[in-house]
């Protein structure tokens, strides 16, 4: 895979982060369209029952919700400022569950901003707090945070530490009772996806691809997974297929991603998927199909006013011309 193609695939991945915790267990509020991929909306507080403990603290809840909204909009400085206000509110109320929740939001925000040392410190603090309350190491919340700590090690290029972390998480998840395991499908899928990316990055291995495919299969079976996430996950798998020179498999995943994406009203990234499909067709020397795919990507880039997609589609045309 060319460095240009690798760059563009990373750009597509960066369009949808998957670190931020859920707000679905707090009282509902009309934010407009804030749907995010399921891994983006997956937090250890699924198991904490925090909504019950904070239902009476309306002012605190409102502050936290605004923090989350600012983060989803990419207004990280505003989110950070509000989180410190929320933390003071929780501390003044001596609401320990609230303090723990806010630390978790802070940790995920730091991870979203790639402030890795800060995120690690905060996740460790959250783990210490919930274990002080009686949680054991096989508690789903502890496993979830451990997966995120392994992800941080991966991003810090600490391969051995990350691998040990992912292995530990998956072994714990597989040893949970069958009834609990069903509830852990999303966490297993998240861990498999991250572990697969680690193995692809450092071992260039088929095992990494297998883990990412396993994650996708789990995600497709979950009803609360956003279709946008499935499209992007398929694109990422196709990128790995390209890297491993499994071009036919990559094309298959991108074609599936496009069929799903065409049914979504606001799938701005679909143009990038078309361009990536065009690049794979080029690898197969199917230049007419490559030209058609890159053309579709260019049109979508124009419609969405996405200069990155337009530029990549135009580069795709130039590469096709050079091969003709």
Characterization of the model:
- By secondary structure, the chain is mainly alpha-helical.
- The protein is built from 16 helices and no strands.
- The longest helix is centred in the middle third of the chain and has 19 residues, at 185-203.
- The protein is globular, with a radius of gyration of 21 Å.
- 43% of the residues are buried.
Which terms would index this structure?
0% strand
Helices and strands in order, then pairings?
Layout: H1 3-14, H2 50-54, H3 58-72, H4 76-92, H5 96-112, H6 116-132, H7 140-155, H8 159-174, H9 178-183, H10 185-203, H11 206-221, H12 227-243, H13 247-261, H14 270-283, H15 287-304, H16 307-323
Helix pairs in contact: 1-12, 1-14, 3-4, 3-5, 4-5, 5-6, 6-7, 7-8, 7-10, 8-10, 10-11, 11-12, 12-13, 12-14, 13-14, 14-15, 14-16, 15-16
Indicate the percent of residues in helices.
over 70%
- Helix-strand string: HHHHHHHHHHHHHHHH
Please work out how many helical segments DSSP would assign. 16
Q: What is the 3D form?
A: globular
Summarize the structure.
With 324 residues, the chain is an all-alpha fold. The protein has 16 helices and no strands. Helix content is 73%, strand content 0%.
């Amino acid at each position: 895979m060319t460095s240009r193609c690798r760059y563009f695939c990373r750009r597509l991945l960066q369009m949808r982060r998957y670190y931020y915790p859920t707000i679905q267990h707090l009282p509902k509020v009309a934010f407009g369209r804030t749907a995010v991929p399921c891994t983006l909306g997956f937090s250890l507080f699924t198991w904490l029952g925090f909504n019950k403990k904070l239902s009476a603290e309306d002012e605190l809840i409102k502050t936290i919700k605004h923090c989350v909204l600012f983060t989803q909009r990419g207004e990280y400085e505003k989110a950070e400022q509000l989180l410190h206000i929320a933390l003071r509110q929780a501390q003044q109320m001596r609401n320990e569950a609230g303090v723990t929740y806010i630390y978790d939001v802070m940790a995920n925000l730091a991870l979203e901003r790639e402030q890795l040392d800060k995120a690690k410190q905060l996740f460790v603090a959250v783990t210490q707090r919930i274990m002080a309350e009686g949680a054991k190491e096989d508690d789903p919340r502890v496993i979830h945070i451990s997966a995120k700590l392994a992800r941080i090690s991966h991003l810090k290029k600490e391969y051995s530490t990350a691998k040990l972390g992912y292995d530990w998480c998956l072994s714990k998840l597989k040893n949970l009772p069958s009834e609990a395991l069903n509830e852990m499908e999303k966490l297993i899928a998240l861990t498999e996806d991250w572990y697969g990316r680690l193995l692809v990055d450092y071992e260039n291995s088929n095992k990494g691809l297998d883990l990412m495919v396993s994650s996708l299969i789990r995600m497709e079976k979950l009803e609360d997974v956003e279709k946008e996430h499935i499209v992007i996950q398929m694109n990422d798998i196709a990128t790995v297929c390209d890297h491993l020179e499994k071009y036919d498999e990559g094309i298959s995943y991108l074609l599936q991603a496009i069929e799903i994406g065409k049914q979504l009203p606001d799938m701005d990234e679909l143009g990038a998927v078309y361009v990536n499909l065009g690049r794979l067709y080029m690898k197969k020397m199917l230049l007419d199909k490559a030209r058609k795919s890159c053309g579709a990507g260019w049109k979508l880039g124009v419609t969405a006013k996405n200069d990155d997609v337009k530029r990549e589609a135009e580069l795709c045309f130039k590469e096709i011309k050079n091969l003709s």
